[in-house]
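Appendix B, record 7
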Amino acid sequence: MSGLEARELRYFVAVAEELNFSRAAERLGMAQPPLSRTIRQLERRLGAALFTRDTRQVVLTDFGATFLEEARHALEVLTAVDRRARRAAQVTPTLVATAKPGIASGMLRRVVDTFRALPGAGRVEIAVSGYREQADMVRDGRADVALLSLPYERRGLDSEPLASEPRVAALPADHPLARRSELRRADLYGEPIPRWAGASEAEHAYWCGREPGADLPPGPVVGDPSQLLEVVGLGQAVALIPRSVAERNPRPDVTYRPVADAAPYVIAIAWPAGTRSPAIARFVSAATDLYLDRTLVS
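Structure tokens (predicted):
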């Protein structure tokens, strides 16, 4: 079998995600017949069916489901290589660093300032990103390094923890637990706890103060810290949050209490696994020199 083409992989992924050739063709901006021909040619070259088809539906075969994950990964790698190569080929090569707003972006600014002061440091661009975007941005080449909080999907990344801080419970001011001076994770069992939009089960377990695989409590879906504190203030949930978030958000309707056995909130620096980029290596070194084993402060 000759080498696969990126075009074929893109066509296959579109059909696999839409499970409809007409919608996939529309998404790709092409006619359906050449798309169907390409998929059949790909199946012949692979020697296995990717889809089962009838007049009512298109379904991935077991092989097709496995091939989908591999195709997505291959396209992600190709996209990342293209983006990083273009940045490296600029007259002034640029390193892109990303973090979400708040403590992480403040840390990133200080790392960038330190890096820029190094002899021969290149250009650095800061990209402020949203919740849970940082790892994907490094994997697909939109960023070269990221400051992100644990836990996260580590696929394709190397990382180094930089700094940590305790987490505290955010409670409605009239909640019975608010009368206690200190809590433990078990005190929160049975309470509704917010779920971050798009969070994995491992991430949700962490924010609930539970072990991965445990039965997790339901709770309202939230998209940012302000929304989370609002549902707590309304009495709809309790939450585990970084201490710095509590310190920056005093509210009469929310009480904060330390949780003695909660895993800390950790910010790490991540970069593409196996990279040999000297610029990335120097940037990571600047970050670890500044922050390794530090306690986060607001």
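Remarks on this record: The two ends are 57 Å apart (CA to CA). The first helix runs from residue 6 to 18.
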